[in-house]
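Sample entry follows:

:::
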Amino acid sequence: MPTLIVFALVGLAAQLVDGALGMAYGVTSTSLLVFAGINPATASASVHLAEVGTTLASGASHWRFGNVDWKLVLKLGVPGAVGAFLGATLLSALSTENAAPYMSGILLALGVYVLLRFSVRPPKVATARTSPHGATFLSPLGLVAGFVDASGGGGWGPVSTPALLSAGRTAPRTIVGSVSASEFLVALAASVGFLIGLGHEVLDPSTVGGLLIGGVLAAPLAAWLVTRVPAPVLGSAVGGIIILTNARTLLRAADAGTAVTASVYVVIVALWALAIGAAVTRLRRSRAEGAAAPTGDGRKVAVAGD
C-alpha cells in the first residue's frame, strides 16, 4: 500500500503538469521514477502502460469538446506509433547501466526545451480548427516524437505540440486535443514494444496502478490549476525540476566529484531562477499592454485574470 501511494503521488504530480501545460506527463513521471531508482526501461514501460488509460480518457474528453482533428490524429499518430515501438525496442535492449544516462540525457534536453519554450519564446496563436499540414510534415514529426517518447521515457507532447504551435497555422485547442488523442496510439504501441522486449514480469502493478490512479485523480485539479497558475510560470518551474533530477543521474554516471556536482547545481538553479524571472516579467508586460490597449470606442480594456 505505501508503494502504491508513492507512485500515485508521482502520477498525480505528472498529471497536474500535463493538465496545466498540455504536455510533459511522461517526461515528469519518468524523471521522478528514475530519480527514485526505478530501472529506466521499466520506468518508461510503466509510464506508457498507465498512459494507455490516461490518454484514452484525455482524447475522449477533447473529442467531446470538439478539439480533435481526426485527420491530424491519424497522420501524426500512426507514424508516432511506429516510432514508439522502435524506441521501446531499443530501450529494452540496452543494459540498465547504459540506459540510465541515455534516457536522462534525452529527458534533460526536453527539460531545457520546456523551460525555454515557456520562459523565452511562447508559441504563435492561430484560429483554424483543422490542420493544413500534410503527411510530408506530419509523418516525420510523428516518427521522431514517438521514438523519443518511448526511448527517452517521454517527449510526445514536448516534441510534437511545440512544432505544430510554432507553425502558427492551427488553433492551439485543436493541436492540444489532437496530440492528446494521437498519444493513445503512441502509448499503446510503446507498451506492446516494452512487453515484447521486457516481458510482463518486470512490471510492478503498484507502479502502473499508482500512476494511473494518481493521473485520474489529478485531472479535475489540473483543470483548476490552469486557471490559477500562468502557463509560462508553471512551465518554467517544471522545466527546472526536470533538468535538476536528470542532471543528478548524469553526474552520477560520470562519477563527478562533490565540487563539480555542487557547481553544476548552482549554475542550474541560477539559470532556472533567471528563466522564471523572465517568464514573470514577460507575463506582467503582456498584461500591462493588454490593460492599456484601447477598444474600438477608445476605452481601455482589462486583461482576464488581472
Confidence is low (pLDDT under 50) at residues 300-306.
